[in-house]
What we know:
Layout: H1 4-10, E1 28-33, E2 36-40, E3 47-50, H2 64-87, E4 91-105, E5 108-122, H3 128-136, E6 139-149, E7 155-164, E8 170-177, H4 185-202, E9 209-215, E10 224-229, H5 233-247, H6 260-263
Parallel strand pairs: 8-9
Antiparallel strand pairs: 1-2, 2-3, 4-5, 6-7, 7-8, 9-10
Amino acid sequence: MAPDNMRNAAETPEQGKTRYRTFTYKTSTTWTEGRSGMLASDGKPSLRFSAPPEFKGESGLWTPEHMFVACVEMCHMSTFIAFAAKLGLPIVSYQSHANGVLEYVDGDYRFTRIVIFPTIVLSSSSAEEQVQAALRDAELVHVEKTFRTTSPVPIAAKLDRAYRLPSGQLVLVELKTRWNGGPNLSDVIQLSAQRVALSAATGQTVAAEAFVLIERPGARRSPVAHRVDLLSADHVVALVRRREAILAARISPRYTEEVGHCQSCAFRSQCEGAGRQQRS
Length: 280
């Protein structure tokens, strides 16, 4: 359940806005010979890679296909560790291996499934049932994917993670890196929009609760998971229609009650209400 301040904040979604930083991750590749090359990124060891031997590449090197499977496996580990921290599981070690199946489907090769096999060691056997429950409830089905709907209002939402429970219900997870250690109203609105778009696009049931995983910049500890209650579909529709009305100048916006929010707002120079002490 969401904390009391989140419940209260959800009743007045127009009042608070949070600006998030945008992160850019740069890599570069250099062809060497045949179907091989070097992968590089500033401050990190370079990596030789090649197409798989099945596609006339050099054996014994990392391939894009292996890296793709590894990305999913690393993401699974990171997310599980965050869930485990929330549950208070005494983890001593975590290891896994994964199998990714590449098949020729509809005229092209694509990954049709990736199966991860984790091995987890705990310092307390009493927590083993919790680990099994967390794994059962964390089947990763969508990663960094955009869903769209046009009814009842146009919404395009890119979700971070979606997990399928044994019941078939989907659970959303949003990953954040910031100094603020708790969930914000904007997180709830973002996840609520994702819920509406995902449900409309897939026809599947999406849970009315979600998780926000927050990691502090440069922190070595695992991200902290926060469970939040999402807004109803009607509430999301009302927010979209209010935004459209504001952009069309049919109604006036309400300014934030917290003057400090104006300091980091990207639109501060264009906003006649920036810095006001009294809010309408």
